[in-house]
Amino acid sequence: MIRRLAKLHDDNLYNWDEYLPARIFAYNTGLHSTTGYSPFQLMFACEPILPFDLPTSTITLTKPNDCWTQINQLTKTYKKNVKNNIIHQQQLCKQHYDQQRADPTYKPGDLVFIKQLGKRPKFGELYSGPFKVLQQQHPLTYSMEDDQAIIQQQVHVSRMEPVYERII
C-alpha cells in the first residue's frame, strides 16, 4: 500500500491522506495474483458493481432462503479455488527459490561463519564465528560448536557461510 501511495503524490507531499480512499478501493476491488480473486469478492461473495459497469442480469429466487444457500455455495467454491490458487503460487515461489539457492554440504571439522538473527547495530557484525561443524543432523541442518567448545547449536544451512583459509 505504501508503494502505491508513493506513486500518487502531488506537488505537495503532505496530502497523501487524500489518496487513501481511492487506493484502498483499488486494492479491495483489484484481482490479487495469489488468490485469483479480489478481497471484495471474497468478503461479500459477489463482484463489486462499479459506476461504469453495465447492468447485470437479475437473479430470481424461488424461495426466501435461496439467497443464503447460493451465498454459502459460492463461498465454498471461492474457498476451494483460493486454496488451490495459493498452493499453486507457493509451488511456483518454491521452484523459483530453489533455482536460485545454492546447495552446500559440509563435512565434520569444516569451519563456518553463522549469520546472526534478530536486531543488531547498524554496523554490527552480520556473521559470528568461526564455528566447527560436528555432524550433519538433517540434510539441511548441522550441529556445530565454537572454537572453545563452549557453545553447541544446530544451524540451518541457509545461515552458514564457509570459512576460506588463505594459503600463503
Automatic annotation (TrEMBL):
Coiled coil: none annotated. InterPro entries: Retrovirus_Pol_polyprotein, RNaseH-like_sf, RNaseH_sf. One of its GO terms (molecular function) is nucleic acid binding. It comes from the Eukaryota. This is Uncharacterized protein. It comes from Didymodactylos carnosus.
